[in-house]
Structures are given as C-alpha cells and as structure tokens.
C-alpha cells in the first residue's frame, strides 16, 4: 500500500470529524467511516457495502461489509463494521450491545462464506474475519477466528478504545494491517498445504487468507477473548474502562 498522509491532516476528514458531536446521530459516524474505509480499502480487489446484510437470508443489516474479490465469481467477507451514535460512547451497555450485534453478523457472514465454498460439515473457513465497532469518535478492533464463536481483540490493540483524532496514528496502523491481512492473492491456489493448515487454525502469526504473507503487526501473542455476554465483566475483559474520557 502506498504511503498515505495522516487522515486528520486532510480537510475532508477534519470536516467530517467536526460533524460528530454529542448530539449527532449515527449517520455522522457512518459518513466519517465511509471515507476512511475507502481511503484504505481502495484497491480493485475490495468491495465496500454500506448498510448491508451479512447473508442473503438475513433481514438485519450491519453498517459496513468489506468483501475481498479473489476471482470473477468469488467475493469473501473479510471486515464488518458496526457504528453507534456518539451519545452512547460512555455507556458500558452500548459497547456490549454493539459487540454482541457485530459478533452475530460476523458469524452469519462466516456461515455464508462456508456455504458458498461448499465446505463439508466440520470443515473450517480458511481465513479469519475482522470487525470494527465505532461508538461516536471511539473505535475498537476485533478478529473472529475460524474455530471461535466469540470475538477476540485484534493483536496489538490490547482491548483498548481508540479515539479518532488523538489515536489516529494507531487507527491508521490497524487499518493498514487489516488490508494486508485480507487482500486476495492471485497465487492463492498454489499455496502450500502447510500454509493452508496454518490459516485454517486461525494462527495470527502464520499466513492468513489463501496463503497470504504473514500479517504485519498481528503476531503479538494470543489475543483476549471478548464475550458479548460478559455483562459487568466487560471492563476487565477489554483491559480498559468502557467509559472513555470525553474529548472534543
């Protein structure tokens, strides 16, 4: 990926950021992330679907679904995003509900991909799916490995909450890593069996989707498991308070 200027130095993002305040509705958060996702997942191999169903037979929609196109007849779900309005950012239950929603959507997307790939019962999807929860100006990053039904903190995030402006450098880093972890490779069909086996087990330090190179920055040990039903245990599960300090 070509080097990108920090997004908060770009007038478009500074304008969209100022539209997000305590009285804003969810659409202001959507507007910012529409442009931010397009900035990073800009390659011809990605499709960004807004307000989309994780599976054709599902009625509920998530805010964004990013698909990686590996061929003329194939597009896998790789990143899902759930947004909430800014006024909810200080509420534990809002984060818990958003993570629960995103977990359900990601499992549905994974099941849809397994059906599309015609995997047999017990076979695992050969790649992980990533998730982002945005509540106002704050974000958290997750991964759903093939063997898991609960989200785990994206390695390197340590369950922390990141502010769009104050933590812009971190957010840029994580988005760059997600692109590297999910971009399709034309040589995927020639991947070695050992690479396929590693990705099948969802190892964050081994080749990822279809035998792609090791994920940069995603090899810092096993991430913590995040249960959407953790209730009051949510704060300790994330490692930081679910109530971020108010910032302009």
UniProtKB/TrEMBL annotation:
Organism: Chaetomidium leptoderma
Biased composition (Low complexity): 187-206
Protein name: Uncharacterized protein
Disordered, as annotated region: 186-248
Domain of life: Eukaryota
Biased composition (Polar residues): 222-239
């Amino acid at each position: 990926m070509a080097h990108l200027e920090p997004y908060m130095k770009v007038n478009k993002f500074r304008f969209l950021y100022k539209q997000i305040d305590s009285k804003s509705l969810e659409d202001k958060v959507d507007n910012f992330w529409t442009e931010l996702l397009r900035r990073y997942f800009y390659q011809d191999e990605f499709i960004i679907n807004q307000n989309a169903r994780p599976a054709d037979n599902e009625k509920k929609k998530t805010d964004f679904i990013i698909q990686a196109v590996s061929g003329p007849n194939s597009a896998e779900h790789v990143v899902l995003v759930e947004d909430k309005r800014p006024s909810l950012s200080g509420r534990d239950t809002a984060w818990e509900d958003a993570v629960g929603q995103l977990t359900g959507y990601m499992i549905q997307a994974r099941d849809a991909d397994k059906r599309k790939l015609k995997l047999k019962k017990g076979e695992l999807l050969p790649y992980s799916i990533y998730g982002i929860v945005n509540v106002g100006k704050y974000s958290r990053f997750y991964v759903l490995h093939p063997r898991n039904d609960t989200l785990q903190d994206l390695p390197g995030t340590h369950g922390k909450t990141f502010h769009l402006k104050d933590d812009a450098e971190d957010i840029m880093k994580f988005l760059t890593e997600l692109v590297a972890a999910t971009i399709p490779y034309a040589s995927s069909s020639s991947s070695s069996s050992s690479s396929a086996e590693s990705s099948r087990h969802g190892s964050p330090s081994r080749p990822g989707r279809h035998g792609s190179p090791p994920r940069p920055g995603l090899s810092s040990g096993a991430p913590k498991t995040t249960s959407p039903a953790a209730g009051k245990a949510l704060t300790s599960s994330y490692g930081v308070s679910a109530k971020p300090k108010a910032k302009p």
